[in-house]
Design goal:
This protein has three domains: about 190 residues, Lambda Exonuclease, Chain A, CATH 3.90.320; about 70 residues; about 55 residues, no CATH class. The chain is built from 13 helices and eight strands. The strands form two sheets. Strands 1, 2, 3, 4, 5 and 6 form a six-stranded mixed sheet that branches. It has a two-stranded antiparallel sheet with strand order 7-8. Strand 5 and strand 6 form a beta hairpin. Helix 7 packs across helix 9. The radius of gyration is 25 Å and the shape is globular. The structure holds iron/sulfur cluster.
């Protein structure tokens, strides 16, 4: 008898790496996650795109507000998804969205809600929006969706699942036929369900719901902290990085990111504590919340004053225009159903006037090769 009775397809990438992660933690901790809020809002906003072929731009602010997601980020990801969907939509005729599936495999009920499903007579196609960077391996989630599709209808001979990487504008497709389904189910049962009791820590522990109570993860973090806190390593990274192998550079960055993530969690916890309970004084130091008051100008009230004293060139020196806010104003003014055309027209005019200056932002990110 298995010690778990239910698993979600979305938990399988981690469960295949470390089956212990699929077992419930003794203490459940719910953490808010901004990236997840944006991801949920984008998934919701993309449903009309898949079902009607058109993105409802006017609805995006409401959807972002409903999930507490950053509007600019939600809009940016929707625009990227719009462009990616135009490339692949031909492969998903009559697609429907958010389709729930469940089936019994051994003693475990496997469930999953598939973002996009297109059913043929013998072949089913699924797709899953991915709004993060292409850094993790979601193969086992995609194969679980393929398995659920095949199990849902005996007439289907093949199922595929395409991961739609919105930020990177990339796609990744996995397939299962009937023979592959049997093999995948055996592997799932052997690896995840009939767990041998071992823990397999790694950088994936950062995504595990048991990481706060897991000794194996704790040992790994201690190792990473010790490695990063080594002054020789810091000196080599700063002064002799060309002598390090690519493998060592990747490994050092992963360790540094893990340590930074944990350190930030500690900082945030202490900040919250000081905000709630007041200053902490110890060791000759005071932990306190420093409040800075910065002056800002109410543009509408300031406009007559600025207009009186400033030339156009002076005004241009002082004023920054937010493209997303300008788009929001024209879209709102144009009214429901006409917002997208108004935004396109505005951007066309700004481009023609040579007013749009691209600005490159460079960030170091980790992606799968
Ligand atoms: S924290 Fe890491 S080692 Fe521990 S259960 Fe989760 S994935 Fe496994």
């Amino acid at each position: 008898m298995a010690d778990i009775t239910h698993l979600r397809a979305s938990s399988l990438p981690l469960a295949f790496l470390c089956p212990a992660s699929a077992r419930p933690p003794k203490l459940r901790i719910v953490q808010s996650n901004d990236a997840a809020d944006v991801g949920t809002a984008v998934h919701e906003a993309l449903r009309p795109l898949v079902e009607t072929g058109r993105l409802d731009w006017d609805a995006i602010p409401g959807v972002a507000a409903r999930y507490g997601a950053d509007l600019e980020e939600t809009r940016f990801l929707c625009a990227r998804a719009n462009s990616l969907w135009s490339r692949v939509q031909g492969s998903f005729p009559d697609a429907v969205t958010e389709v729930p599936f469940s089936d019994q495999i051994g003693d475990v009920e496997l469930t999953g809600t598939v973002d996009i499903v297109s059913l043929g007579e013998e072949v089913a196609r699924a797709a899953d929006w991915k709004t993060g960077h292409k850094d993790s391996d979601y193969k086992q989630q995609a194969l679980a969706y393929c398995a659920l599709l095949l199990l849902s209808d005996y007439r289907l001979q093949e199922a595929s699942c395409t991961l739609l990487w919105v930020r990177d504008q990339d796609v990744e497709t996995y397939r299962l036929d009937r023979a592959g389904l049997g093999k995948w189910k055996r592997e799932f049962l052997a690896r995840v369900v009939e767990w041998n009791g071992a823990f397999y820590p790694g950088h994936h522990c950062g995504y595990c719901p048991r990481s706060h109570e897991c000794e194996a993860a704790n040992a790994l973090i201690r190792r990473d902290v010790a490695a990063i806190a080594d002054k020789e390593l810091v000196a080599r990274a700063e002064c002799a990085i060309e002598l390090m192998s690519p493998e060592e550079i990747v490994s050092v960055l992963q360790k540094a990111d893990t340590v930074a993530r944990y350190a930030e969690r500690v900082r945030q916890a202490i900040k919250k504590h000081v905000e709630r309970h007041g200053d902490i004084i110890a060791n000759g130091l005071r932990l306190t919340i420093d409040t800075e008051t910065r002056r800002s100008i109410d543009v509408l009230k300031a406009w007559p004053v600025l207009d009186k004293h400033f030339s156009d060139e002076d005004l241009a020196e002082c004023i920054t225009v937010s493209i997303s806010k300008a788009e929001k104003v024209v879209a709102t003014r144009a009214g429901r159903g006409k917002g997208a055309a108004a935004v396109r027209a505005l951007n066309g005019e700004l481009d023609a006037a040579g007013a749009v200056e691209p600005k490159e932002v460079k960030r170091l990110v980790v992606k799968r090769a």
